[in-house]
Amino acid sequence: MKIGSFKGRIGFIFFLFLLLALLMVVRLYFLQIVDGEEYAEKADRQYVNISTNTFDRGGIFFQNKAGNLVSAAGLGSGYILALNVKGMSSSTDYIEKISQIMTIDKESLYSKLANGSTYIEIARRVTEDNIKKVKDLDLPGIVIAREKWRYYPGNSLASRLIGFVAYDDSGEKIEGRYGLEKYYNSTLKRDGGGLYMNTFAQIFSNLGLGLGDNEDREGDVVTSIDPEVQVYFDYIINNVNEKWGSKVTGGIIIDPNTGDIYSMSVAPGFDLNNFKNVKDISLFSNPLVSDAYEMGSIIKPLTVAAGLDNGDITANTTYNDKGYLELDGFTIYNFDKKGRGIADMQTVLNNSLNTGVAFIADRLGKEKFLEYFQNYGIGTESGIDLPAEAKGNISNLTTNLKNSKKIEYATASFGQGISLTPIMTARALSVLANGGKLVIPHVAKKIEYKVGITKNISYTDEAKQVLKKETSEEITRMLINVVDKALLNGNMKMKNYSIAAKTGTAQIARPARDGGGYYSDKYLHSFFGYFPAYNPRFLVFLYTLEPKNVNYASQTLTEPFFDIAKFLINYYQIPPDR
């Protein structure tokens, strides 16, 4: 035998050995990791009388500052307890004995027996301890089945962000119906495939991960939501809503540099584990994404920034403020109808002067004004990974641009006549904080696929530069001045931290069926701020709809904002910047 031929055979045998070893390792991986839970469940079923296909679904996780995962949506586990009445001599005796172990609806069970039912479900979600006690009774005809269900450990925590699962319109399949549950349904759902799926098919069907579209791969969703922040934020938002008797109160905490969302909160919320008890289904939707409002004066910094960026004004540019401005047969007033005489642009922000930002809009011109607002993402979806996102409405600026009236742009400059969703607003305002970039807000941080591959989610490379960095720095300086000198007479200034912020109080439009115009006694209050201002970690946006017996956002939202700011600074141990 030739030496070369011998070596070739040895090499071939060695290759086969390695291939066999590799296949064994891969198979063990799928047995222990990928299908481990299913095998464990199969073992559990040996404990019960019958076997059922139990509900399964991927998890949704929050992530704290240390990177530890906390379950936001997972699986509860227990048992179904039932009776097979056929051939049973004393069903009532069974019911009485079981009622000594756990609380059951005896009257309903007796009624089913009287109606001749042969299979009677006694209870669902029965605990392991109670099942053992029932088994110890050694009652023939007892039926026990394993069951799983969707479980939300936080109950009402972030309820309008997470969403829930329920049967689809056909009543046959369970699917995500709102929030993250709906948006990531294709990732979270479990279609099964059985324990005996071909190993080779399982291996090679997953080689494409990372090479193509992963939307339909089974996995868990890990979010950027910090559970500690969410708990505190929910507390603040609920307190504001209750204190002022508002219809809705909501808020967003976002990293303006990356679009990572640390918390989204809406009040009122609901218990995710008992959503069937909710009578008002509007509570299921997320108004931070789906509802649009005229935001009022928090839009003014966007107008000032556009004027600065285009070179039409500086912080020292002045105009004559009479307290009112007449345009196209309409009169615009400052909130207090008072004039300040010769005023510069810093005064415009400090005193929230409608006439001042209308002056800037006029200098920009209609085309440029619209261009900047569209570049801020106003009037388009933000791209957030949540369902049913609304686009807002700036049609009064985009329709018949050449023939549109100046009054439309003047009112838009201070946030009236155009509508924005809260997430769209937070995204636009982040441009002021982050050096002039339009980021894409998102809740999911990564997807951990069932086969063991992780897909990290980041949109920072897609951020579009819409303002010069110098403009961002200048508007930030001006907004710091608003806090240090003007907000509640400068009493909110923080000694060691620079805060850039602005309030907004907007009139609420009256429906055309009620005569149009604006209500004189209904307002939307809003507040935004970012910090540390020149290198911000957080932008916080707050709003409350129709608060009672109060006029201005400075009264309703200033204190909650600074409570949140202090909490975030302490929790994340943010070093002082001044």
Please supply descriptive tags for the structure shown above.
578 residues; alpha+beta; Beta-lactamase; 7-stranded mixed beta sheet; 5-stranded antiparallel beta sheet; 21 helices; 36% helix
Q: What's this entry about, in short?
A:
The protein is of the alpha+beta class and 578 residues long.
3D structure, described in words:
With 578 residues, the chain is α+β, with helices and mostly antiparallel strands. Among the domains are: 3-34; 227-571, Beta-lactamase, CATH 3.40.710.10. Helices cover 36% and strands 21% of the residues. It is built from 21 helices and 20 strands. The strands form 6 sheets. Strands 1, 2, 3, 4, 7, 15 and 16 form a 7-stranded mixed sheet that branches. A 5-stranded antiparallel sheet has the order 9-8-20-19-18, with helices on both faces. A hairpin with a 6-residue loop joins strand 8 (248-254) and strand 9 (261-267). Helix 12 crosses helix 19 (469-486). It is elongated and about 95 Å long. Residues 40-52 and 193-213 have low confidence and may be disordered.
Shape: elongated
- Going by CATH, the architecture of the domain at 227-571 would be 3-Layer(aba) Sandwich
Oligomer description: single chain
Number of helical regions: 21
Looking at CATH, the homologous superfamily of the domain at 227-571 is DD-peptidase/beta-lactamase superfamily
Termini separation:
84 Å
**Alpha-carbon Rg, integer:** 30 Å
CATH domain fold name of the domain at 227-571: Beta-lactamase
- β-strand percent reads 15-25%
The strand count comes to 20
Percent range for helical residues? 25-40%
Report the average pLDDT across residues: 89
Q: Which stretches are low in confidence, meaning pLDDT under 50 for 5 or more residues running?
A: 40-52, 193-213
Highest CATH level, the class of the domain at 227-571: Alpha Beta
Largest sheet: 7 strands, mixed
Pairing-aware structural class of the strands and helices? alpha+beta
